[in-house]
Amino acid sequence: MKILLTGCSGQVGWELARTLLPLGDVIAANRSEADLSDPDGLRRTVQKLNPDVIVNPAAYTAVDKAETDRDLAFLVNAEAPRVLAEEAAKKSALLVHYSTDYVFDGTKNAPSTEDDVTHPVNVYGQSKLAGEQAIQATGADHLILRTSWVYAARGQNFLKTILRLAAEREELNIVADQIGSPTWARLIAETTAHILRQILLERQQDVFNSGIYNLTSAGETSWHGFAQGIVEIARQQGVQPLKNRVINPIPTTAYPVPAKRPLNSRLSTERLEQHFDLKMPSWDSALRLCMEEMV
Ligand SMILES: NC(=O)c1ccc[n+]([C@@H]2O[C@H](COP(=O)([O-])OP(=O)(O)OC[C@H]3O[C@@H](n4cnc5c(N)ncnc54)[C@H](OP(=O)(O)O)[C@@H]3O)[C@@H](O)[C@H]2O)c1
After folding, report:
1. Which of 20, 78, 98, 292 is most solvent-facing, going by the fewest CB within 10 Å?
2. Does 249 reside within a domain?
């Protein structure tokens, strides 16, 4: 089985390049090998490689920049997934795609389920929702995995930023009224591999149904709680000298950024856990495991 993986240098893509290995021949493509801002070139690449499965973690993920870079965000997050899905449909291949809690406006007072009404509040969320809808419209066999608050030992993310700031500053102010579940890229990649095994069997048996699944860690916290967890673990590890003494909780309104964020980023993983017989680990246990690799 041939698996085309896009965005292999990203947080999730880098992990997938490892966890997908036992499933088949993985063609791990970076931006220059599969450019999602060039739909025609992307189409030719897929046709040439002729994969059985396309796994697409590549995305325009600069949430604030997307507010003023709408065309590129939509090209990469909506048009390119449409092309991948169209090519998958032609060959009866499977497309595994990633999306986000930012397809919701975050006003629900509970974790969002896959069937809740979408209503993105920023351009990034709009472009990711357009990608989901474009894939669905092609009729290709697909799996859309919505995740949230992704971090990893590599790449640019909140974990790395907090570790840097905690080494530099005694006092940090972190938003405390946005809640979600920080999710380790490794967990997303391991879970994808597990799911994929089952899906491939379901397709062989002709019982596969395309659909959306939420894929996050269990439990919830705020960005403030996430930062506290990071600094606490770093302090216990005792490897890095930390200047930080206090992390102040602040409201979203005190930290203005170009893109509006949903206050509630929580996603229910019940459908995923039931269908694939999984139990998602708590966000803080996964964070500890990730940070163990960083020392
Ligand atoms: N990060 C989060 O907090 C978060 C939250 C919810 C959902 N998600 C979704 O989860 C998935 C994985 O996110 P991530 O955190 O792994 O993202 P990431 O670390 O920002 O990586 C994005 C990847 O996409 C690639 N990329 C960007 N533009 C491209 C283009 N024009 N052509 C080809 N590749 C391109 C990047 O390549 P370069 O390395 O060359 O830039 C990088 O490999 C995405 O679908 C994202 O929307 C992420």
Report:
1. 292
2. no
